[in-house]
Specification:
Radius of gyration: 20 Å
Bound molecules: adenosine-5'-triphosphate, magnesium ion
Strand content: 15-25%
Largest sheet: 6 strands, mixed
Structural class: alpha/beta
Helix content: 25-40%
Order of helices and strands: HEEEHEEHEHHHHEHEHEEHH
């Protein structure tokens, strides 16, 4: 790039590119177009919802945004940079973290160790440094453990840090996932049905933690079927059906939209 990059700094700040901007995404599985020309934007600092009937392609879209699947075609920009061909590690390094619809913690690892697996760029990941710089590795490991503990405290799982992952309930697994992805300091967090299968007491805790993360400045895109929860969390909801963008708007407006109701009824009938 030419050195003129500095010339536009001031006025251009207001026009900074969205954190995530996906355009015309297509993902084919054989003959099935699970995502079929979908576009979506996540602005810096916002908490937006993604809704749509079962099989609409929401999780597949997340897999594309998180880099665990490559699109058949289309563009994904993170802070203006094209990343569609990059894998999940690069995507995490660029600040995009995601949780899974059905979290599967490592069953025999402790809760603390599970959180530690979310760390990025620790010196200990490069084996040779263990020999050349053992002191540095030890210090980084201590810092990582401290960070993992503070994140476990944030999700209120500190009391379980030495328990194996398998003992956690569905809701606790969702909280563990949240702590795990926070190890990498994501700017954007993609939450795939954070409230599904969670008992009512943990549900309020999860909602509270998600609100707190957004208040701390994290940009959040969440898939959720429960419209009451979507309405509490999101100012803007994007609706997806049969792999395509349908509409978007305030949750109460979208929920009354005949095209949205029709899409859900069609989904039930299918
Ligand atoms: N790996 C895959 N191979 C083949 N088909 C797939 C694959 N993953 C998803 N699909 C299909 O793509 C479509 C979209 O699935 P997806 O899981 O993205 O939907 P969803 O909107 O997340 O649904 P739900 O609300 O039930 O979680 C479905 O028809 C699904 O069967
Ligand atoms: Mg899904």
């Amino acid at each position: 790039m030419p050195t003129a990059a500095h010339a536009h700094n001031g006025p251009r700040d207001a026009e900074a590119p969205p954190l995530i901007e996906a355009r015309d995404l297509v993902k084919r599985f054989g003959g099935v177009r699970a995502v079929d020309g979908m576009s979506i934007t996540l602005r810096r600092g916002e908490m937006a919802g993604l809704i749509g009937p079962n099989g609409a392609g929401k999780t597949t879209l997340f897999n594309l945004l998180a880099g665990s699947l490559k699109p058949s075609s289309g563009s994904i920009r993170v802070s203006g940079r094209e990343v569609a061909q990059e894998g999940p590690e690069r995507r995490i390094a660029r600040g995009v973290g995601r949780t899974f619809q059905i979290p599967r913690p490592f069953a025999e690892m402790t809760v603390l160790e599970n959180v530690l697996t979310g760390g990025q760029g620790q010196a200990g990941e490069q084996i040779w440094k263990n020999f050349l710089q053992p002191g540095r590795v030890a210090a980084q490991e201590r810092a990582a453990v401290e960070k993992a503990r503070s994140l476990l405290n944030f999700v209120r799982l500190s009391g379980l840090e030495s328990e194996p992952g398998r003992v956690l309930s569905g809701g606790q697994r969702k909280l563990l996932e949240l702590a795990r992805i926070l190890m990498a300091d994501p700017e954007a967090i993609l939450l795939d049905e954070p409230a599904a299968g969670v008992n009512p007491s943990l549900l309020e805790l999860i909602i509270d933690r998600v609100l707190e993360l957004n208040a701390q400045g994290k940009s959040i895109l969440l898939i959720e079927h429960n419209m009451e929860i979507v309405a509490r969390l999101c100012g803007r909801v994007v609706v997806m059906a049969t792999g395509k963008y349908l509409t978007e708007g305030a949750p109460d407006v979208v929920a009354r939209d005949p095209a949205v109701i029709e899409a859900y009824l069609g989904g039930v009938a299918a």
